[in-house]
Amino acid sequence: MRYLDIDTPTKISKIGLGTWQFGSRGWGYGTSYADRDAAAIVQRAIELGVTLFDTAEVYGRGRSERILGQAIAGHRDSVFLATKLLPVAPFPPIVHQRAVASAARLGVSRIDLYQIHQANPLVKDTVIMRGMRDLQRIGLVAEVGVSNYSVRRWRAAEEALGSRVLSNQVSYSLAVPGPAADLVPYAEEKGRVVMAYSPLAQGLLSGRYTGSSRPSNQVRAFNPLFLPANLERAEGLLAALREVADAHDATPAQIALAWVIRSPAVTAIPGASSLRQLESNVAAADIDLADDEWQALRDASVRFRPTTGAAAVPAMVRARIGTGNRSGSQTNSQANGQIGSA
Ligand SMILES: NC(=O)c1ccc[n+]([C@@H]2O[C@H](COP(=O)([O-])OP(=O)(O)OC[C@H]3O[C@@H](n4cnc5c(N)ncnc54)[C@H](OP(=O)(O)O)[C@@H]3O)[C@@H](O)[C@H]2O)c1
Questions:
Q1: Shortest-distance Cα residue to atom 44 of ligand 1
Q2: How would residue 222 be classed by pLDDT, with cut points 50, 70 and 90?
Q3: C-beta of 87 in contact with ligand 1 (< 6 A)
Q4: More confident residue, 270 or 317
Q5: pLDDT tens for each residue of 313-337
């Protein structure tokens, strides 16, 4: 494992583990995953040197925090625990109360990184950060982070806090390469961290899904990247990934992760539906891409133009209506050889 060169008491691993999948109905991995596999994935991750674990109060309505908290018990000092506040009415007393509730579910007396899940369009960060400052002062929160923030708002959040806002957790992958242009250079210059979520574009970059074999869980049904036409458009990007993967005796998913974490300011938090995926993702931390490989992938990424936003809505509706009758679409349970449903 490799670690970020940032002065935190527990070093932050370049590959972390995202735990939205834990106890979440939307991912549909079933009860055996929530009750057993998730804990085994966390324990194996710790054995392999992963320190960064990301969750949120909203994942599985607190269930992800509970599952993660139980799984790390006994390893508290070797993990860097990150959770998130959903900023609904984020006035200081509410921020305090929600942090206490998250810490209780996690079973810890300190949250290593407390992140604002998304920018609140109505409440300014000057208000939210008053609550965050209190939490830091009493030691319940070590570092403050944000998520889904622009560079401008990240900077404003830092001014409001009056000290560093360590990280910004954003969607960043070969399918969503935008942060490479602004957030990553900003983090490199300021000694801050970009935490890449959905670094595998929710599995698209593994090459496992095609226009005729799509995942059918709720989360991905609402992700336009999995529209049949977008999966077809992704073929060029996947071909470029396979070419680099062959040269490294690696998988496309591993190369997709290696691409994202190449900057010293970036860590990635892929989710995993199995131990095998976790082990494969961890191994990606040790892959070094050459400059020309990184650039060739970036070029392929720029050429990938999926239909997203409002333009994707009619096709999403058509795909949703057709989902139940598609013989080619697989449920996650089928795809993973698992039984049971969430
Ligand atoms: N801050 C935010 O707003 C926000 C938003 C989204 C996510 N997140 C965080 O980021 C984490 C990761 O993002 P994500 O879960 O959306 O997407 P992701 O990490 O890109 O994709 C995870 C999915 O990809 C598949 N996968 C993982 N490793 C694989 C491998 N080695 N080979 C093949 N397939 C593999 C698995 O699905 P299948 O096996 O079912 O294909 C897995 O559930 C989340 O758990 C959460 O902690 C944060």
A1: 18
A2: confident
A3: no
A4: 270
A5: 888 888 777 654 343 333 333 333 2
Q: Is the CB of 217 under 6 A from ligand 1?
A: no
Distance from the alpha carbon of residue 173 to the mean position of ligand 1, in angstroms: 11
**Does ligand 1 lie within 6 Å of residue 169's CB atom?**
yes
**Contact 19 CB / ligand 1 (< 6 Å):** yes
**Cα–ligand 1 centroid distance for 197 (angstroms):** 7
What strands lie across the sheet with 111-116, from one edge to the other?
17-18, 52-54, 80-85, 111-116, 141-147, 165-171, 193-197, 266-268
Q: Is 301 in the pocket of ligand 1 (CB under 6 A)?
A: no
Q: Which of residues 104 and 342 earns the better pLDDT score?
A: 104
Average of per-residue pLDDT across 267-288: 98
Most distant CA atoms of the chain, gap in Å: 56
Percent of the chain with pLDDT over 90: 84
Residue indicated by tokens 């976790």: 278
Estimate the share of the chain in helix, then strand, then coil, as percent rounded to the nearest 5. Answer: 50, 15, 35
pLDDT band at 303 (very low <50, low <70, confident <90, very high): very high
Burial of 328 (0-12, 13-18, 19+ CB in 10 A): exposed
Helix axes 275-283, 252-260, angle to 10 degrees: 50
- Which residue's CA lies nearest to atom 15 of ligand 1? 271
Q: Which two tokens stand for residue 202?
A: 């929710």
Residues 6+ apart with CB under 8 A from 53: 16, 17, 19, 42, 45, 68, 72, 79, 80, 81, 82
- Residue 114 is among the residues annotated as catalytic for this protein: no
Q: For the whole model, what pTM was predicted?
A: 0.93
Rounded mean pLDDT of the chain? 92
Query: Atom 16, ligand 1: which residue's CA is nearest?
Result: 198
Of 29, 59, 114, 186, the catalytic one is 59
